[in-house]
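can u do me a favor
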């Protein structure tokens, strides 16, 4: 029989594996005594790895008592969350027996996939596993597996330490609640690869390199008839994937787009939580929003360092011409950027973000927990019904921030820019549920106005840089001279951009609002 399983897979250090069994939070949740086993698993595939390409795995596992044959379909890991279909049967000996598979849908699929090719061992794992059964406040039970092991193939091997938490019974948010209790204060990372994935990576080392570019998530698939709860899950899940995807890349990439996309994901998540606040916004989601805001400020220091160099200094120097003074400023800023990048990498590796990571990994469960026991009629409201109300609210906020635009100071423009950004993210999510040309026309005008505001905000950062350098270096220093010339060039340009912003703001106000 085909059984879907829901489990969380986390990469942890061996120190965490040693520490977890002694934690009071874990002991309070544990039912019965832990079980320890040594597992040997042999993974099979065709010579051209057809099972892997079909996101499936086939193994024989010796659990100390018997051989178990397991076929998993849909084995990909997404941000540490696994939800494959699993078909498991005991076999008499260390040999595959595909006749044990009785699922009428799986049999022809597997036969066509293998197409007469021989299934041979491709790699194996040796794992020391401690297993505990956990009960969480009567809402459900889960099995915790602490794995310390090794994956081996011909001529290669790799050690790993991993934690798996699998839902056994009860509500899905059992996994989130248990994870928060036992991993709080511990450094964890979402597993990026299953044990099968680790083995295939060893078999094909040349194709297993990490992507150092930014992670761009798929847009959530929304329609006006879906429920508010399902829409919240889809939107927040997309933002969470963007957060975790770029979080994992900052440590290996110097690409400025990576921290930028991480911050965008954090803002998109907060926009989602704010948008659906009438539906679900208890203390847990409120804490999630605050954590996302805090992390955004941390990563913002690196983003600012990138913007100063790439969007302020270099464009001005290209127009003014390179000289020794400008080169000295660029070197100074590059050194600062390296310091900021290292500081952000250190900060992101901290255990203080564990609860944020877990809620992003299990965002569907976070929504389920927040909605549990709440008004079902709110959860079942159609997205098309609430979208217009929410967009009108965001537009009203933008108009309030835009009053007296011609007399705005820097802080006023900054606050208006943030309000525009929130509206933009909401429009980006919700445009697909509206028909006609109006959504794209409005969004284009909104984005063009926000782009001007972004530049004006960058110029304000340049003035802050000038003040910082003036405080550190004497008036005649090359750095002071360089930044003064650059700020002067941007000040002239900013006057033109400010007039452009006024025109674009008037155009946006007069544009038809597609949610009416």
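np, heres the sequence
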């Amino acid at each position: 029989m085909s059984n879907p399983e829901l489990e969380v897979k986390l990469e942890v250090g061996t120190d965490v594996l040693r520490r977890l069994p002694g934690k009071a939070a874990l002991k309070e949740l544990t039912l019965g005594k832990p079980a320890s086993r040594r597992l040997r698993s042999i993974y099979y595939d065709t010579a051209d790895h057809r099972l892997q390409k079909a996101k499936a795995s086939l193994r024989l596992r010796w659990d100390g008592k018997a051989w178990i044959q397991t076929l998993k379909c849909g084995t990909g890991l997404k941000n540490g969350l696994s939800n494959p279909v699993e078909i498991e049967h005991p076999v008499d000996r260390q040999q595959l027996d595909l006749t044990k598979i009785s699922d009428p849908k799986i049999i022809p699929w597997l036969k066509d996939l293998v197409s007469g090719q021989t299934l041979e061992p491709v790699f194996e794992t040796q794992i020391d596993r401690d297993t505990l059964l956990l009960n969480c406040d009567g809402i459900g039970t889960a099995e915790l597996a602490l794995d310390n092991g090794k994956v081996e193939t011909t001529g290669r091997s790799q050690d790993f330490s991993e934690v798996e938490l699998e839902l056994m019974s009860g509500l899905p948010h059992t996994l989130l609640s248990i994870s928060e209790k036992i991993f709080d204060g511990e450094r964890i990372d979402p597993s990026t690869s299953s044990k099968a994935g680790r083995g295939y990576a060893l078999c094909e080392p040349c194709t297993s390199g990490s992507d150092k570019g930014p992670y761009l998530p798929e847009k959530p698939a929304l329609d006006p008839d879906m429920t508010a709860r399902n829409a919240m899950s889809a939107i927040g899940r997309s933002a969470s994937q963007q957060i975790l995807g770029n979080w994992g890349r900052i440590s290996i990439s110097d690409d400025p787009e990576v921290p930028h996309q991480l911050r965008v994901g954090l803002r998109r998540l907060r926009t989602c939580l704010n948008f659906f606040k009438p539906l679900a916004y208890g203390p847990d989601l409120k804490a999630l929003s605050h954590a996302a805001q805090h992390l955004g400020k941390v990563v913002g220091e690196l983003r600012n360092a990138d913007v100063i160099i790439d969007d302020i200094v270099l464009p001005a120097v290209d127009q003014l011409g390179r000289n020794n003074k400008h080169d000295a400023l660029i070197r100074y800023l590059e050194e600062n950027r390296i310091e900021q990048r290292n500081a952000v990498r250190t900060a992101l590796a901290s255990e203080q973000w564990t609860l944020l990571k877990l809620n992003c990994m299990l965002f569907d469960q976070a929504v389920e927990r927040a909605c549990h026991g709440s008004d079902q009629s709110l959860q079942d409201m159609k997205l098309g019904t609430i979208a217009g109300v929410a967009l009108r609210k965001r537009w009203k906020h933008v108009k309030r921030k835009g009053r007296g635009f011609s007399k705005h100071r820097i802080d006023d423009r900054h606050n208006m820019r943030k309000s525009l950004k929130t509206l933009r993210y909401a429009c980006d999510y919700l445009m697909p549920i509206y028909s006609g040309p109006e959504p794209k026309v409005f969004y284009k005008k909104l984005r063009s106005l926000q782009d001007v505001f972004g530049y004006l905000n960058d110029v304000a950062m340049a003035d802050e840089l000038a003040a910082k350098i003036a405080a550190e270096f004497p008036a005649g220093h090359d750095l002071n001279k360089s930044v003064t010339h650059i700020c002067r060039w941007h000040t002239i340009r900013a006057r033109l951009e400010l007039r452009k912003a006024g025109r674009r703001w008037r155009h946006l106000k007069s544009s038809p609002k597609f949610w009416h």
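The chain has 17 helices and eleven strands. hope that helps!!
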